[in-house]
# Entry
Amino acid sequence: MDMEESGMQANAPSTVLAHWFRAAKSVVVLTGAGMSAESGIPTFRDAQNGLWSRFDPEDLATARAYQQDKALVWGWYVWRMATVRAAQPHAGHLALAELAAIKPSLSIVSQNVDDLHERAGSKEVIHLHGSLFASHCFACGRPHDDVCLPPEAAQKPSLRLMPPRCSHCGGYVRPGVVWFGETLPKLAWRRAERWVTDCDLLVAIGTSGIVFPAASLPSVARHRGTKVVETNPVRTQLSDQVDLSWRSTAGEALSGLLAALKT
Ligand code: OAD
# Structure
């Protein structure tokens, strides 16, 4: 850290981050479930909706769970799809889209399976764990576009719902997300690694840093001498490995960064 930077550390996190943001040629923002929390989407490890509270999400988000009890797993995903459909991007999502207008090389690598970044206007977004809205056949893999969400699915969900059938082979439809034990989409992962290798600032927002391989991206950046910043209301697995660990929510941090850049 140079003299100017050691002085910078005494400043507010937003000022330090704004300094690094201005200086960076290329910025990657890694988002996790905490990014969507302020839009009302529960984080992965939060208490789940009442109906599913006795299930560990890691036990529901597997191919094995789906094969054993399709209706239970599909019911959970229908509730998650409906919750996302009913949610709106928050101030942090909007600020992030504005930050990309200031720094066009900014790209987002998201672990989230919702579409809130895109709805806020962000263009360069990779979804490492797939999308809730890219359902496909479990048997033949063909896309299945017309998943029908019951109107009450967000407020009064059903614990169990049978998934629809594929119109090509009659197999059952599954959500387009990456389940535990499955590999990440190759192209998305390669692009994410390239972006992280090429960037000179990585900002990790709202991730616990415990699910690999996404959780390895901050250390890939760090080993290349790239500045790494974390914003999270609590300490995480990443906190000891970063240049700046900012205790703040996603909305507060991203709006704060935007405001600091405008002053
Ligand atoms: P987690 O649920 O593990 O962690 C969410 C993080 O968000 C926690 O560290 C919270 O402290 C933080 N958080 C909560 N509210 C926040 C807020 N308002 N602003 C900022 N941060 C906040 O979610 P991920 O790290 O995304 O994978 O988990 C990674 C992957 O694990 C998920 O993509 C999912 C899950 O298993 C798959 O489904 C494959």
Summary: The chain has eleven helices and eight strands. Residues 122 and 138 are 30 Å apart (CA to CA). The pocket of 2'-O-acetyl adenosine-5-diphosphoribose is lined by residues 32-34, 37-38, 43-45, 61, 111, 129, 177-178, 180, 206-208, 211, 232-234, 236, 249-250 (CB under 6 Å). The radius of gyration is 19 Å.
